[in-house]
Amino acid sequence: MRPLIAIDWGTSSLRGAQLGAEGQVLATREFARGILSVPPGQFAAVLDELFGDWMQAPGALCLISGMAGSRQGWQEAPYCPCPAGFAELGQHLLWLQPGRIALVPGLSCLGQDTLQTTDVMRGEEVQIFGALQLAGQDSATLVLPGTHSKWVQVQGGRVTQFQTFMTGEVFALMSQHSILGKTLDLTGAFDESAFLQGVDQSQQAGSVLNKLFAVRTLGLFERLAAVALPSYLSGLLIGEELHHPRASTPAEPVLLIGNDALTLRYTLALKHLGVACQSHGPEATWAGLFALASASAC
User: Fold this and answer.
1) d(CA 165, CA 180)
2) Which candidate, 10, 54, 3, places its Cα nearest to that of 290?
3) Average pLDDT for 205-223
4) N or C: which end of the chain has fewer CB within 10 A?
């Protein structure tokens, strides 16, 4: 196996790992140099500035996942349509320097209904395959919490379908840019009890739009403290997401991929609703890029 430089280049941050012959992480680096901070035409220079010493290793290969392959990034890497596994991703790699530096394509998924838009992801596909490698599975339901949460179905090592939920973005909008923000105190610690109250309320009949306004009235009539309201709102929105049909007691534990703070909340909500789950963090990205390089014989 060639020396692999694994890069996760997102909108606001840039992470990299130097991987050994068996996929072990030898070193990592992280910078606030997301794609939006890079002037046009300067991506190669930034990569060389921050990771050029790693690239000096004889035969080094660099695989880059994430938003660097978007229309706003280094170069647009066309989406790979689902169903897709390692073979399809390998065939769709966009080589910036043949045999040396490549962009990993994202995935697209066309809805069954003609009124549904095509769903897309960039970067998550690598995390998905990495988490499966770490779990020793080739089929699973996976959830990637975040600004735009992803629910993913994998069968036989191939992503068959996925859907995106704007849970994190709606939380930010509601808590910071709506009337609810006048009632919430965002400085408090996470309140597990209030969070689970929100999850429970989300499962009751009625519109989520009405339930959102009730966050304000809970504060106005002091039924919940202002410092507990953000946790309640979080539980309400995550619980609404968990109405997703794939959250209903799958045969195997749901695989969660994300940072500790978010996976903790989803773990609490899923277990509260009787759904088993396991969590993976940043290591899923490195495992996925290593597995892709191995499968593609780059």
Assistant:
1) 21
2) 3
3) 94
4) N
